Structures are given as structure tokens and as C-alpha cells.
Amino acid sequence: MFSKAEAELIRKEFWTSFGKSFPKKWLLYNTKVKGLSFKFVADRKKAAVCLDIENPDELVNLLYYDQMLSLKVLLESEIPEVIFDDDFLLENGKTIHRIYVPFDKKFSIHNKNTWRDCYEFFVDTMTKFEMFFYEYEDVIKNI
Questions:
Q1: How confident is residue 117, by pLDDT bands cut at 50, 70 and 90?
Q2: In sequence order, what are the residues at sequence separation of 6 or more whose Cβ sits closer than 8 angstroms to the Cβ of residue 123?
């Protein structure tokens, strides 16, 4: 078990190492769509690449989520393991719409032996997500 400070240092090292190992300017929050962002997620038990829909206006959230659902078959053809969750509960108690791909191997941010596989998963999956977004950006934004 790690102290809170040790765990924070490990998390910082994980993300710093990822950035240095795979230096790339990711799309992430620069979608130019309010409340639509890509995220890398990693914690003690799991990792994932996500597209979160969390606009302050719930009607807008639903419209964007429906737009993504209309593209579901196309996205699944690029990323078959993608999961659509219209009721995803964040740790802070907030519920959002999340479209994500979980890392299916054993992972813990506290175990450096699992980092490399996770990094490769992040790069491969986020690249596919971004390419899909760029290809269908006009459709996604057209609500």
C-alpha cells in the first residue's frame, strides 16, 4: 500500500512517462464542441480511452449522444470493443454519457510492469478514436 503522497508521485510519473514515451499532440479537449472531450483514464485497477459527453445542458448532451449512437455501427467497425454508456457514473458522483474502450489486460497504475502495454493501448485506441472523430466531425457537430 502506498501513502497518498507516494500514490500521487506514481500517478505523476505514469503520465510524465507516457508523455515522454509517446510525444504527440492529442485532440483531447480541443474538439471545438463544448462538453465533448477525449480522455485517457488510468487508476489502480483499470485503464480506458474515453469520449465523454458532459455539456452543462442535458438536452445538448442527449443530442450529441444520439448523434454518436447514429454512428455506432461505423465506430464499431473501427473499434469493435467500444462501449456506449448513456448513464456512466464518475467517482465524483456526476453522471455523464461515455463512449469508451477499456484496457482488457491486467493493469494498475501502481505496477510499472503494466505501464508499457497500457501506453501502447492508449496510443492505438486514441489514434483510432481521433481518426473517426475527424472523419465524422461534421456529422457529430451537426445537432
A1: very high
A2: 22, 24
